[in-house]
Design a protein that fits this description.
Radius of gyration: 32 Å
Helix content: 10-25%
Largest sheet: 8 strands, antiparallel
Number of domains: 1
Order of helices and strands: HEEHEEEEEEEEE
Strand content: 25-35%
Length: 240
């Protein structure tokens, strides 16, 4: 009885092997042509949706000029590090415009820690205030913006700035540098709303999460007016 049952099982197996599978996702092959190899193939379907994503490591910061956050030391392009601290610095009073400030920094000009507002301090401790010891105030903040795009046609990052006031906050500036030492771009403005302004772009995908160093700053250049200001900076990533 057991022998008959066993033969029946083998008979069913043979019938199954002789019949091509009808269930989806199966395949079979037999080397019945005398070859010493056999092969078959499968089909893999991969569905990857288009995705854009952003991650900002810091989504707010506050400047309170009642308590000026002074830098720890002087800064210039010759300081040994290319960017200043997240702090406030004194800009000499003879630096009047954004172009003046850019030229001053590129020429190796020194930004000194600012301890109060308005910016004035006896750095030499000689009981006198020289013209180089008073001026305007610039306050800086740094953060990382990480972006992801799998769009094969490329991507662009734009920035738009709005506020509860169209002016009176001095000069706002934003710089973007693709890390670690990639292209950089940015803008300054004294009026809002501003933008959108494209600050970074690339061909193809971002290659995973791509980091940008964001440097933001307010230069209280003497045109600022007392008040409470709320600035909204919106980063947008889009395909080309």
């Amino acid at each position: 009885m057991k022998k008959i049952a066993l033969l029946a099982v083998f008979a069913l197996m043979g019938a199954a092997l002789a019949t091509e599978p009808t269930q989806p996702g199966q395949a079979w092959a037999i080397n019945d042509s005398g070859s010493d190899t056999v092969s078959l193939s499968e089909t893999i379907k991969v569905i990857i949706p288009t995705r854009y994503a952003l991650h900002l490591t810091e989504d707010s910061w506050t400047i309170d000029l009642n308590n000026v956050p002074a830098a720890n030391q002087d800064w210039s392009l010759n300081s040994g590090y290319d960017l200043p601290e997240e702090a406030c610095y004194l800009v000499p009073k003879n630096v009047k415009t954004v172009d003046d400030l850019r030229a001053y920094i590129l020429d190796g000009g020194v930004l000194r820690p600012a301890y109060n507002y308005p910016a004035i301090y006896d750095y030499n401790d000689d009981g006198e205030i020289a013209d180089t010891e008073k001026g305007t105030l610039i306050c800086l903040n740094k953060k990382i913006l990480q972006k992801f795009s799998n769009d094969p046609d490329g991507w662009e990052l734009s920035v738009q700035v709005t506020s509860n006031s169209d002016s009176g906050f001095g000069v706002f500036g934003l710089g973007d540098r693709i890390m670690p030492e990639g292209p950089q771009d940015g803008f300054t403005t004294t009026t809002l709303p501003y933008g959108p302004d494209v600050v970074a772009s690339g061909q193809g995908t971002t290659g995973g999460w791509l980091d940008d160093l964001i440097l933001e700053g307010f230069w209280f250049d003497g045109t600022e007016a007392a008040g409470n200001y709320e600035i909204t900076v919106t980063f947008s990533l889009a395909g080309l």
